[in-house]
Write a structure and sequence with these properties.
Largest sheet: 7 strands, mixed
CATH class of the largest domain: Alpha Beta
Number of helices: 11
CATH topology of the largest domain: 2-enoyl-CoA Hydratase, Chain A, domain 1
Order of helices and strands: EEEHEHEEHEEHHHEHEHHHH
Protein backbone atom coordinates (compact mmCIF):
# COMPACT_ATOMS: atom_id res chain seq x y z
CA UNK A 1 0.00 0.00 0.00
CA UNK A 2 1.78 3.09 -1.19
CA UNK A 3 1.52 6.27 0.87
CA UNK A 4 0.58 9.48 -0.91
CA UNK A 5 1.33 13.08 0.08
CA UNK A 6 -1.12 14.85 2.37
CA UNK A 7 -1.57 14.18 6.05
CA UNK A 8 -4.11 13.86 8.83
CA UNK A 9 -2.53 13.68 12.31
CA UNK A 10 0.67 12.62 10.61
CA UNK A 11 -0.95 9.96 8.43
CA UNK A 12 -1.67 10.17 4.67
CA UNK A 13 -5.37 10.79 4.05
CA UNK A 14 -5.43 8.67 0.88
CA UNK A 15 -3.62 5.39 0.23
CA UNK A 16 -3.11 3.84 -3.21
CA UNK A 17 -2.00 0.45 -4.50
CA UNK A 18 -1.72 -0.48 -8.19
CA UNK A 19 -1.44 -4.09 -9.34
CA UNK A 20 -2.40 -5.84 -12.58
CA UNK A 21 -3.88 -2.65 -14.06
CA UNK A 22 -6.23 -2.18 -11.07
CA UNK A 23 -5.77 0.73 -8.65
CA UNK A 24 -7.16 0.37 -5.13
CA UNK A 25 -7.74 3.67 -3.33
CA UNK A 26 -8.40 3.88 0.42
CA UNK A 27 -9.95 6.82 2.27
CA UNK A 28 -7.64 6.93 5.29
CA UNK A 29 -9.02 8.87 8.23
CA UNK A 30 -10.13 5.90 10.35
CA UNK A 31 -10.18 7.86 13.62
CA UNK A 32 -12.78 10.16 12.01
CA UNK A 33 -14.52 7.26 10.23
CA UNK A 34 -13.08 8.58 6.96
CA UNK A 35 -15.16 11.76 7.19
CA UNK A 36 -14.71 14.12 4.27
CA UNK A 37 -12.64 17.21 4.98
CA UNK A 38 -10.93 19.56 2.55
CA UNK A 39 -7.60 17.71 2.70
CA UNK A 40 -9.14 14.29 2.01
CA UNK A 41 -11.44 15.44 -0.79
CA UNK A 42 -8.81 17.47 -2.60
CA UNK A 43 -6.28 14.63 -2.34
CA UNK A 44 -8.86 12.10 -3.49
CA UNK A 45 -9.67 14.18 -6.57
CA UNK A 46 -5.96 14.53 -7.34
CA UNK A 47 -5.35 10.79 -6.96
CA UNK A 48 -8.28 9.57 -9.07
CA UNK A 49 -7.53 12.18 -11.72
CA UNK A 50 -3.95 10.92 -11.96
CA UNK A 51 -5.11 7.29 -12.12
CA UNK A 52 -7.66 8.13 -14.82
CA UNK A 53 -4.82 9.53 -16.94
CA UNK A 54 -2.46 6.62 -16.20
CA UNK A 55 -2.08 4.25 -19.16
CA UNK A 56 -1.14 1.48 -16.71
CA UNK A 57 -4.54 1.55 -14.96
CA UNK A 58 -7.87 0.34 -16.36
CA UNK A 59 -10.07 0.16 -13.23
CA UNK A 60 -10.23 2.03 -9.91
CA UNK A 61 -11.54 0.48 -6.68
CA UNK A 62 -12.56 2.95 -3.97
CA UNK A 63 -12.86 1.78 -0.37
CA UNK A 64 -12.24 2.97 3.18
CA UNK A 65 -9.85 2.04 5.93
CA UNK A 66 -11.88 0.06 8.50
CA UNK A 67 -14.12 0.40 10.37
CA UNK A 68 -16.12 2.71 8.05
CA UNK A 69 -16.40 3.54 4.38
CA UNK A 70 -17.22 7.21 4.94
CA UNK A 71 -19.19 9.04 7.64
CA UNK A 72 -19.92 11.98 5.36
CA UNK A 73 -18.75 15.56 5.75
CA UNK A 74 -16.47 16.21 8.72
CA UNK A 75 -18.85 18.27 10.86
CA UNK A 76 -16.05 19.36 13.18
CA UNK A 77 -14.30 21.07 10.27
CA UNK A 78 -17.63 22.31 8.89
CA UNK A 79 -18.23 24.11 12.20
CA UNK A 80 -14.86 25.89 11.97
CA UNK A 81 -14.37 29.45 10.76
CA UNK A 82 -13.83 28.50 7.10
CA UNK A 83 -16.74 26.06 6.93
CA UNK A 84 -14.74 23.22 5.40
CA UNK A 85 -16.54 21.43 2.58
CA UNK A 86 -19.74 23.33 3.36
CA UNK A 87 -18.10 26.67 2.62
CA UNK A 88 -19.65 28.60 -0.26
CA UNK A 89 -16.21 28.97 -1.88
CA UNK A 90 -15.52 25.22 -2.01
CA UNK A 91 -15.63 24.23 -5.68
CA UNK A 92 -17.21 20.81 -6.24
CA UNK A 93 -17.61 18.60 -9.32
CA UNK A 94 -20.75 19.31 -11.34
CA UNK A 95 -22.11 15.82 -10.72
CA UNK A 96 -21.47 13.83 -7.56
CA UNK A 97 -18.41 13.85 -5.34
CA UNK A 98 -15.91 12.52 -7.87
CA UNK A 99 -14.63 14.35 -10.94
CA UNK A 100 -15.73 13.04 -14.34
CA UNK A 101 -13.67 9.93 -15.02
CA UNK A 102 -13.39 7.84 -18.17
CA UNK A 103 -12.43 4.65 -16.32
CA UNK A 104 -14.82 2.54 -14.24
CA UNK A 105 -14.84 3.01 -10.47
CA UNK A 106 -15.94 0.10 -8.27
CA UNK A 107 -17.01 1.12 -4.78
CA UNK A 108 -16.07 -1.48 -2.14
CA UNK A 109 -18.20 -0.40 0.82
CA UNK A 110 -16.47 -1.87 3.85
CA UNK A 111 -18.62 -0.40 6.62
CA UNK A 112 -21.07 2.37 7.51
CA UNK A 113 -21.52 5.12 4.94
CA UNK A 114 -23.75 8.10 5.49
CA UNK A 115 -24.85 11.37 3.91
CA UNK A 116 -21.86 12.72 1.91
CA UNK A 117 -20.32 9.27 2.17
CA UNK A 118 -23.38 7.80 0.47
CA UNK A 119 -23.15 10.49 -2.22
CA UNK A 120 -19.50 9.52 -2.71
CA UNK A 121 -20.44 5.84 -2.97
CA UNK A 122 -23.08 6.66 -5.60
CA UNK A 123 -20.42 8.53 -7.58
CA UNK A 124 -18.95 5.08 -8.30
CA UNK A 125 -20.18 3.00 -11.23
CA UNK A 126 -21.18 0.02 -9.11
CA UNK A 127 -21.04 -1.00 -5.46
CA UNK A 128 -19.95 -4.20 -3.74
CA UNK A 129 -20.78 -4.20 -0.03
CA UNK A 130 -19.33 -5.96 2.98
CA UNK A 131 -21.85 -7.59 5.27
CA UNK A 132 -20.77 -4.89 7.74
CA UNK A 133 -21.93 -2.08 5.45
CA UNK A 134 -24.72 0.24 6.55
CA UNK A 135 -26.24 3.12 4.59
CA UNK A 136 -28.06 6.30 5.63
CA UNK A 137 -28.91 9.80 4.46
CA UNK A 138 -28.72 11.95 7.59
CA UNK A 139 -28.70 15.38 5.94
CA UNK A 140 -31.98 16.38 7.58
CA UNK A 141 -30.79 15.12 10.97
CA UNK A 142 -27.62 17.20 10.99
CA UNK A 143 -29.30 20.23 9.46
CA UNK A 144 -27.60 20.50 6.06
CA UNK A 145 -28.88 20.04 2.55
CA UNK A 146 -27.54 17.56 -0.05
CA UNK A 147 -25.13 19.00 -2.58
CA UNK A 148 -23.38 15.90 -3.88
CA UNK A 149 -26.23 14.29 -5.80
CA UNK A 150 -28.35 12.60 -3.13
CA UNK A 151 -31.71 13.80 -4.47
CA UNK A 152 -30.61 13.11 -8.04
CA UNK A 153 -29.04 9.67 -7.78
CA UNK A 154 -30.64 7.92 -4.81
CA UNK A 155 -34.11 7.89 -6.37
CA UNK A 156 -32.72 6.52 -9.63
CA UNK A 157 -30.85 3.77 -7.80
CA UNK A 158 -33.57 2.58 -5.39
CA UNK A 159 -36.82 4.28 -6.47
CA UNK A 160 -38.41 7.52 -5.35
CA UNK A 161 -40.48 6.28 -2.35
CA UNK A 162 -37.50 4.45 -0.81
CA UNK A 163 -35.19 7.41 -1.42
CA UNK A 164 -37.66 9.74 0.26
CA UNK A 165 -37.93 7.33 3.19
CA UNK A 166 -34.16 7.28 3.69
CA UNK A 167 -33.84 11.06 3.42
CA UNK A 168 -36.74 12.11 5.66
CA UNK A 169 -36.10 9.52 8.39
CA UNK A 170 -32.30 9.45 8.45
CA UNK A 171 -32.56 5.77 9.37
CA UNK A 172 -29.86 3.28 8.43
CA UNK A 173 -30.48 0.26 6.22
CA UNK A 174 -28.29 -2.83 6.39
CA UNK A 175 -26.36 -4.43 3.55
CA UNK A 176 -29.02 -7.03 2.76
CA UNK A 177 -31.71 -4.35 2.50
CA UNK A 178 -29.41 -2.27 0.30
CA UNK A 179 -29.02 -5.31 -1.98
CA UNK A 180 -32.76 -5.96 -2.08
CA UNK A 181 -33.46 -2.29 -2.87
CA UNK A 182 -30.85 -2.17 -5.64
CA UNK A 183 -28.41 0.22 -3.96
CA UNK A 184 -25.55 -2.31 -4.15
CA UNK A 185 -24.75 -5.01 -6.70
CA UNK A 186 -23.55 -7.68 -4.28
CA UNK A 187 -23.00 -8.34 -0.57
CA UNK A 188 -20.05 -10.47 0.51
CA UNK A 189 -18.35 -11.44 3.76
CA UNK A 190 -16.20 -8.62 5.07
CA UNK A 191 -12.97 -10.60 4.61
CA UNK A 192 -13.87 -11.25 0.96
CA UNK A 193 -14.74 -7.68 -0.02
CA UNK A 194 -11.55 -6.52 -1.74
CA UNK A 195 -11.00 -9.95 -3.27
CA UNK A 196 -14.44 -9.87 -4.89
CA UNK A 197 -14.01 -6.26 -6.06
CA UNK A 198 -10.65 -7.16 -7.60
CA UNK A 199 -12.13 -10.21 -9.30
CA UNK A 200 -14.76 -8.00 -10.94
CA UNK A 201 -12.03 -5.51 -11.84
CA UNK A 202 -10.00 -8.30 -13.45
CA UNK A 203 -12.98 -9.16 -15.68
CA UNK A 204 -13.15 -5.52 -16.74
CA UNK A 205 -9.40 -5.44 -17.43
CA UNK A 206 -9.74 -8.47 -19.70
CA UNK A 207 -11.98 -6.46 -22.07
CA UNK A 208 -11.08 -3.87 -24.67
CA UNK A 209 -10.43 -0.78 -22.48
CA UNK A 210 -11.60 1.63 -25.16
CA UNK A 211 -14.84 -0.31 -25.47
CA UNK A 212 -15.35 -0.29 -21.70
CA UNK A 213 -14.90 3.47 -21.50
CA UNK A 214 -17.14 4.09 -24.50
CA UNK A 215 -20.04 2.06 -23.14
CA UNK A 216 -19.64 3.68 -19.70
CA UNK A 217 -19.89 7.09 -21.35
CA UNK A 218 -23.00 5.99 -23.23
CA UNK A 219 -24.67 4.85 -20.01
CA UNK A 220 -23.76 8.07 -18.18
CA UNK A 221 -24.96 10.31 -20.99
CA UNK A 222 -28.17 8.34 -21.34
CA UNK A 223 -28.85 8.41 -17.59
CA UNK A 224 -28.51 12.19 -17.56
CA UNK A 225 -31.35 12.69 -20.02
CA UNK A 226 -34.71 11.27 -21.09
CA UNK A 227 -35.18 7.89 -22.74
CA UNK A 228 -36.14 9.54 -26.04
CA UNK A 229 -32.93 11.58 -26.00
CA UNK A 230 -30.83 8.58 -24.93
CA UNK A 231 -31.59 6.60 -28.09
CA UNK A 232 -29.76 8.95 -30.50
CA UNK A 233 -26.83 9.14 -28.05
CA UNK A 234 -26.41 5.38 -28.34
CA UNK A 235 -26.95 5.32 -32.10
CA UNK A 236 -24.41 8.09 -32.68
CA UNK A 237 -21.80 6.40 -30.50
CA UNK A 238 -22.37 3.03 -32.18
CA UNK A 239 -21.96 4.50 -35.66
CA UNK A 240 -18.80 6.35 -34.61
CA UNK A 241 -17.39 3.14 -33.13
CA UNK A 242 -18.16 1.15 -36.28
CA UNK A 243 -16.55 3.79 -38.49
CA UNK A 244 -13.44 3.80 -36.34
CA UNK A 245 -13.22 0.04 -35.78
CA UNK A 246 -9.90 -1.44 -36.79
CA UNK A 247 -10.87 -5.08 -36.20
CA UNK A 248 -10.69 -7.37 -39.25
CA UNK A 249 -13.22 -10.13 -39.86
CA UNK A 250 -10.64 -12.66 -38.69
CA UNK A 251 -10.04 -10.71 -35.47
CA UNK A 252 -13.77 -10.45 -34.81
CA UNK A 253 -14.13 -14.22 -35.29
CA UNK A 254 -11.33 -14.76 -32.78
CA UNK A 255 -13.02 -12.47 -30.27
CA UNK A 256 -16.39 -14.17 -30.70
CA UNK A 257 -14.79 -17.56 -30.11
CA UNK A 258 -13.08 -16.29 -26.97
CA UNK A 259 -16.36 -14.85 -25.65
CA UNK A 260 -18.18 -18.13 -26.32
CA UNK A 261 -15.46 -20.15 -24.59
CA UNK A 262 -15.50 -17.83 -21.56
CA UNK A 263 -19.27 -18.07 -21.32
CA UNK A 264 -19.15 -21.86 -21.35
CA UNK A 265 -16.57 -21.84 -18.55
CA UNK A 266 -18.60 -19.38 -16.46
CA UNK A 267 -21.96 -21.10 -16.98
CA UNK A 268 -21.27 -24.73 -17.96
CA UNK A 269 -24.12 -26.47 -19.72
CA UNK A 270 -25.67 -29.33 -17.72
CA UNK A 271 -24.88 -32.76 -19.07
CA UNK A 272 -27.75 -34.33 -21.04
Amino acid sequence: MAEQPGSDDGEPVVLVEVAERVATVWLNRPARRNALNRALVRRLWEVVGTLDADDGVDVIILTGTDPAFCAGVDLKEAASADGGLLSADMEMPERGLLPDLAKPVIGAVNGPTATGGLELAMSCDLLIASDRARFADTHSRVGVMPGGGMTVRLARWIGLPRAKQMSITGDYIDADTALRWGLVNEVVAHADLLGRARLIAASVVSNDPRGVRTVLSMYDQGAATTENEAWPIEHTAARAWAADSRASGEELDRRRAAVTDRGRRQLPTAAP
